[in-house]
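Quick question: what would this complex look like in 3D?
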Amino acid sequence: MPVRGTARLRVESLSAGREVATITGVTLEVAQGEVVGLAGLEGAGQRVLLRALAGQIPTTAGRVTLDGRDVTADGYRARMAAGVHHLPADRIGEGLVPGLTITEHIALTAEQSGAAIDWAAAERDAAERIERFSVRGTPDSVPESLSGGNQQRLLLALMPPQPSLVLMEHPTRGLDVESAAWVWRQLLARREDGTAFVFASADLDELMTYCDRILVCFSGRIIGEVDAATTSVAELGLLIGGVTA
Amino acid sequence: MITRAAETLGTLAPRLIAVPVALAVGLLLLWVADAPPLQTLRLLIEGSLGSQQRIGDTLMVWAPLALACAALVVTFTAGLWNIGVEGQIVAGAIAATWVARELSAPPAVVMASMLVAGTAGGAAWAGLLGVLNVRGGVHEIFGGLGLTFVATGAVIYLVLGPWKRAGVASTSGTDLFPREVWFPTMAALRVSPLAVGLGVIAVVGVFLLLRRTRFGLRLRATGQGRAAAARLGVPTERYLMYAFLLSGALAGIAGAVLVGAQHHKLVPSVSGGYGFLGILVVLLASYRIHWAAPIALFFAIIANGSVQLQLRLDLHSSLGGVFQGVLVLAVLLAGGWQMRRARERDRKAAARA
C-alpha cells in the first residue's frame, strides 16, 4: 500500500492565469501517495491549475504549500528543486528538446557538478535508462525520431528518482493500450515512496481506473469532487457539463 | 562513430555540391564580364597566397572574420540571429581606441587594456541588445541592425568630432596610435601573431565550450527548444543573455584587433562588414564552428585575392563579394532542397505507415 501520510500539497483559494485562461478560488489537498485526477472540458481550467501548481503561471491570489512549506512565491525552478515535477501534454514541444540526443537529455538533467560534461558516464546512464524504461531507441536517438509512447517513456526516464509531487497533462494521450498501462505501472510504483500525483485527462476510464479522487473543473473553478471507486461515467459526465444538482 | 560520420557526410554532401555550382556560376559571371576565367582564378589564388606577405595579409583578414564567426556561432546556437555583430565589432573598436588614446602606461599594459576594453565594449553593446530582446521583446534582428547603425554613426561622429586629427577633420580616420601600442607584427609576414592567435583561441574555445561543457549543452537546448529546455530546468532567459554577452565579447575582440593590429587608428569603416560576412560564413558552415574556421579562410582568400583582380585585370574587386554571395546562395538553395526532400521522404514514410 502506498504511504498515506500528511498532506503533501495544500492549496487554499488559489487564483491564477490571465484573460480567459484563469482559475479562481481553487482549494484542494493531496496526501502523500495519493492520485488525484482533474476532469473537465478542454479549457475548463485543468491546464492552468497544473501549471500554476508547477510555478509556471504566477498566482494572483491564494496560497500553495508543499510538505508544509509555503511555495506560493516560488517560480518553476524553485518548485522543481522542492520536488515538483511537471509532465506537459506536448511531449516534443515542451517535454523534450528536438535535436538533442537521449544522452544529451540525460546530461542536461543530471545533477553533475563541474563545468565539463562526462559524456562517457552520460552515455552509460542513457543506455541503462533506455533499458530500464524500455525505450525503443539508442543513446544517439533524437526524440522526434521516437514514437509517442517511447517519447513518454523517455520523459519518465528523465524524471528525478523521488519527486514529491508529479503534475501531468494527459499522461497517456495517443499511446496504445499496452504503453498506457506500462506508463501507469511505472508512475504508481512511485507512490510507495510517497509521491503524490495530480493529473488532467480527457479519458474518463483512465481517471476512474487510476485515481483515488477526481476533481471536476468547470469554467476555472472546481465544482465537484467524486470518489473514483464509486462514481460512474454518467455522474462524471454531468459534472463535466457543469450540472451540479 | 561510423554512422555519425556517414550522417555528417550525408548532410554536408548537398552543400559540397553547391561549391562547384557556385564556381560555375562565378565563372559564367567572369565570362560575361569578359575576363579570362582561368587567369582570374590564378590571380585570386596568387593574390592571397602567392607570397609570404600575401599569406600574412590573408591571415589578417581571417583573424577578425574567425572571431566574428565564433561570436555568431554562439548566438546561433542559442537560436538567436545576432545580426548586430557588426555593431558589436565597431563598439569594441571604439572602446579599444579610447584606451589607446587615453591610457598612458607601458605598451604591454596599454595593449592588454585595449583588448579588455574591446571585449567589454562589444559585450556591453550586445548586452544592450540582449536586454532589448529578452526583457523588451524586441526582435534581435531589428534591435541588432538598429544598434549597428548607432555604433557606425558613433564612429563617424568620433572621427569627425572629438577624436579628429589636429587641425583637420577627415574621414580617413583619427590620428595613428603611438607606434609602441600597435600590436606587434612579424615583419616578414605582416602578421600579428596576437590577432591570429586570438582567432584560433576563439574558434577552439567556442568548439570546446559547445561540445564539452554543461554551459554549451544548455545553450544548445535553449536554441533548439526553448520551452522544453525551460521545463527541463534550464534558466533560458539567463542563457540567452549569456549568449549575447559572450558573442559581443568575441566580436569586441575582433574590433580591438582591427584597430590594434590593422588600422592602428579608428576609421569610419573600421569593421568593413566582417560581421555581415561572418553571417554568410556561418550559414555556409551550418552554424558549426569547426567548419566556419576553414570556410572563413576560404573567404579571406577570395577577399584578398580579388584586390588583384582590380589591379591586374581591371575587374572591380567587388567581384569577389559577388562570388561569395553566389556561393552562399547556392548552399542555402541546396540546404532548402535537402530539407524539402527530407520532408517529402517523411511524408511518404508516414503515408506508408
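Answer marked as accepted. Chain B touches chain A at residues 3-4, 212-215, 217-218, 220-221, 224-225, 227-235 (CB under 8 Å).
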